[in-house]
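Structure (tokenized):
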């Protein structure tokens, strides 16, 4: 891809080619990968909207074999970049990338994944100015002027319900002001919220991000974890935020164990 840059991520443990103009690794990306917990003994995951492969590759670094993941991405040029990143980081045995639309039920087998990760489009479709750059428009709004490129929270939740095994886990990161439509979409498609954490820029500031874990076919019972602060009262990054960039992710004492 023209205009791509190669960048060190996770303190240099991962090197990624990513578009100079388009979807790039951000704090959201790192927090999503750090939020995941494993339950299955042979975890088989899927990432929706995998872009240049960052989250899938971060997960493969965090979790040793037999963990494996399939990344699904709509844009062919980003799939090629993701495959290059996978190969150059030596993860080709456990990470696969597929080009296609998450709404296409024929691409991946139903009820075959233990976990799903997604960073959905964070703008409401039809709200705000859509970027003329297709890759950025899809990442931000789930849409461009081409209606076929559209993707909504309902589409994402429907894909989760279709692809996850019963009891399989749906992990996502989203702007906090979109919590209501996210919860509504999850409920409609049988994804029961089980664990949530709000991310705040600093103590005293409103939350701007939420991390959510749902279970397909799960019952009632949502745990709201303590808030995660990006900056402390001293203006420096908090130790917990920095831990997301480390090998064990957030809450390492819990994340390394398979949860009952």
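Design, position by position:
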């Amino acid at each position: 891809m023209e205009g791509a840059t190669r960048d060190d991520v996770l303190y240099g443990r991962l090197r990624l080619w990513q578009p100079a103009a388009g979807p790039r690794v951000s704090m959201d990306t790192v927090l999503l990968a750090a939020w995941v917990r494993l339950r299955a003994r042979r975890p088989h995951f899927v990432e929706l909207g995998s872009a240049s492969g960052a989250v899938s590759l971060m997960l493969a670094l965090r979790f040793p074999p037999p963990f494996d993941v399939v990344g699904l991405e709509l844009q062919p040029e980003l799939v090629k970049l993701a495959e290059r990143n996978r190969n150059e980081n030596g993860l080709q045995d456990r990470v696969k990338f597929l080009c296609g639309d998450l709404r296409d039920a024929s691409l991946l087998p139903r009820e075959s994944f233990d976990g799903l990760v997604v960073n959905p489009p964070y703008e409401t479709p039809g709200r705000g100015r859509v970027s003329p750059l297709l890759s950025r428009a899809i990442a931000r709004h789930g849409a461009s002027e081409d209606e076929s490129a559209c993707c909504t929270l309902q589409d994402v939740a429907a894909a989760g319900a279709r692809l996850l095994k019963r009891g399989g886990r749906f992990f996502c990161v989203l702007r906090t002001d979109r919590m209501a439509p996210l919860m509504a979409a999850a409920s409609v498609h049988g994804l029961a919220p089980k664990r949530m954490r709000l991310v705040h820029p600093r103590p005293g500031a409103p939350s701007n991000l939420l991390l959510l874990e749902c279970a397909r076919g799960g019952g009632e019972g949502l745990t709201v974890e303590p808030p995660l602060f990006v900056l402390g009262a001293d203006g420096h990054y908090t130790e917990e935020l920095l831990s997301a960039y480390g090998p064990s992710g957030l809450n390492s004492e819990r994340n390394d164990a398979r949860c009952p």
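Reviewer-requested clarification: The mean pLDDT is 89. The longest helix spans residues 76-88.
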